[in-house]
Amino acid sequence: xxxxxxxxxxxxxxxxxxxxxxxxxxxxxxxxxxxxxxxxxxxxxxxxxxxxxxxxxxxxxxxxxxxxxxxxxxxxxxxxxxxxxxxxxxxxxxxxxxxxxxxxxxxxxxxxxxxxxxxxxxxxxxxxxxxxxxxxxxxxxxxxxxxxxxxxxxxxxxxxxxxxxxxxxxxxxxxxxxxxxxxxxxxxxxxxxxxxxxxxxxxxxxxxxxxxxxxxxxxxxxxxxxxxxxxxxxxxxxxxxxxxxxxxxxxxxxxxxxxxxxxxxxxxxxxxxxxxxxxxxxxxxxxxxxxxxxxxxxxxxxxxxxxxxxxx
Length: 312
What we know:
The chain has eleven helices and eight strands. It has helices at 3-24, 26-31, 52-61, 74-83, 88-98, 106-111, 113-118, 135-145, 177-184, 241-261, 285-307, and strands at 38-42, 68-72, 157-163, 169-172, 194-196, 199-203, 220-224, 268-270. Strands 1, 2, 3, 4, 5, 6, 7 and 8 form an eight-stranded mixed beta sheet that branches. The radius of gyration is 20 Å and the shape is globular.
């Protein structure tokens, strides 16, 4: 969290309000005190990004609605559902339906008819560019959200992707929603790159893993960092080839974020301490939420203090 950024934004807000006072007149007084415009940046991090749900829970509990959401990779996936107008409870139920059921083990859940409909993205791919399909997941997201375009979203959303050839960050906020989300989650070598708008696109986390810098028009910026720091299980612990590749991406993303934080900070940085969960272990949904609960509670306390809300 950065009190200086918060104070600067509040000062600018006060100055702007003063400049507009002759125009607004008594209407502003009738409206009462205004909540700050909240910007929500949801970072990449694979399965650990399911903890973004707990930020939605806090906002719902406090009756707060983001002014804008930005997301990369799993952050774009989770952000698209919340921006579509789904509540935290709705999203919890949707995730629960494609991860481990409470009364079944993972294998039984995987083999059940309803789940296999949406788990085609876990099947080996046969084409060039990736080893896992993502079309089934994207179909599930589209049906769950009930929208197809950015313009249909209840909350403005910015989705970060990376141009594979030019290596530059691209931000999508209009037009077709799901090709942008599918591109944002396309980890190179794992998921097939996405051809969209005459560009070959891959994971947005490669260029901007926690895109809070896109929320300059917001007065209170909340960033969620779900990148982890891996520790070996023992002296002889040697990662698999896949884990080596995925953890290399995590190392790079941590470096990008660390450099950005030297020059710019969000007002609140939420960092759930989720240990021992690998990138693709989405079936550990409830364990992820359990580990993320302290960060969830800390965020709620912080927002109550900043907004003058009494403790529950």
